[in-house]
Structures are given as C-alpha cells and as structure tokens.
Write a structure and sequence with these properties.
Layout (H helix, E strand, L loop, with lengths): L1 E3 L6 E5 L12 E2 L5 H4 L2 H30 L2 H21 L5 H18 L7 H20 L17
Antiparallel strand pairs: 1-2, 2-3
Helix pairs in contact: 3-4, 3-5, 4-5
C-alpha cells in the first residue's frame, strides 16, 4: 500500500485501496486550513478574560475568608442577629406591615439569642434588649388599628 501526497487539488491519493468490485476509492481530500481561521479568537479572548476574572474573584474570596477568620465568631453572629433585627424592623415599619415576615425574623433572632445565651459574649445583654424591643414593636404594630378601621374612642356614640 502506498500513499501519494501533494495532488494539485489538495487531495491525497492512497494507492492499493480499492472498493470491492475493483472500483478505485475516490481520493481522500485533506483540506488544510490555518488554525487561526478555524478558531474564533474573540471567543478565546473572552474565555481568557473570564478565566482571569474567575481567578480574581477566587483571590478576593480567599482574602475575605482570611479576614473573616480573624474576627471572633461571637462578633460575626451578633452582626447577623442585628441583621435579623433590621429585617423585622423593615417589615414592621412599611406602609403595609408584613407581620408574618417580621415574626419570622423575630423568631429567628430569638432562636439564636436564646440558643446561644452568654456564648454571644459581651454583647449578649444588648442582644436580649434588642429582642425585647423588637417584640414590643411587633405587638404595638399588630394591635394598631388598620387604615380606615375605627377604635372605640373614635366611634360615634350617638350623643350630641
């Protein structure tokens, strides 16, 4: 079996290969196209940019983790508790208070504070005070008459 290269049309003829029945096999055509013409270099550049961006994000995350590891756990948890406090306050102070959402935030806050107690460190008493405060705010909003709803004091008794 021999192989011939370099036909004028870019094909490669393979001598000695024939189809059954004695018919010669058509020459194999190898189209050689420069690699730059087959690859979308803009796409490769975009992937490279994404890879660089992913590496930058990963480095920033590693730095943030290292900084967070230096902060005492009770400080981080206290910050989360205060986030729950703020969430409850937002739901209670909106034009249409969302009592179920506020209740969920307050209950989550209580679960952390009551569950951890003094393990929250020096801020434990402050967290307990904050919990009592937001619970009182919840009760006040829940008991507040709705817009358009009258109270007993506002009702007309019929006396003129």
């Amino acid at each position: 079996m021999t192989r011939t290269h370099g036909a004028a049309d870019g094909s490669v003829a393979v001598a000695g290969w024939e189809r059954s029945g004695g018919c010669p096999v058509a020459p194999l055509r190898l189209d050689c196209v420069p690699i730059a013409e087959t690859i979308d270099l803009g796409r490769v550049s975009h992937v490279s940019d994404e890879t660089d961006q992913a590496a930058e994000i990963e480095a920033a995350m590693a730095e943030a983790r290292a900084r967070l590891a230096e902060v005492p756990a009770e400080v981080v948890i206290t910050n989360h508790v205060m986030g729950m406090y703020e969430l409850a306050a937002i739901h209670l102070s909106s034009d249409e208070p969302d009592l179920p959402a506020a209740s969920l935030a307050i209950d989550a806050m209580a679960a952390v504070i009551d569950g951890l107690g003094a393990r929250l460190g020096a801020d434990a008493p402050t967290m307990n005070d904050a919990l009592a405060n937001i619970r009182m705010a919840y009760v006040a909003v829940r008991n507040r008459p709705s817009v358009g709803e009258s109270t007993a004091d506002d009702a007309d008794t019929g006396d003129d």
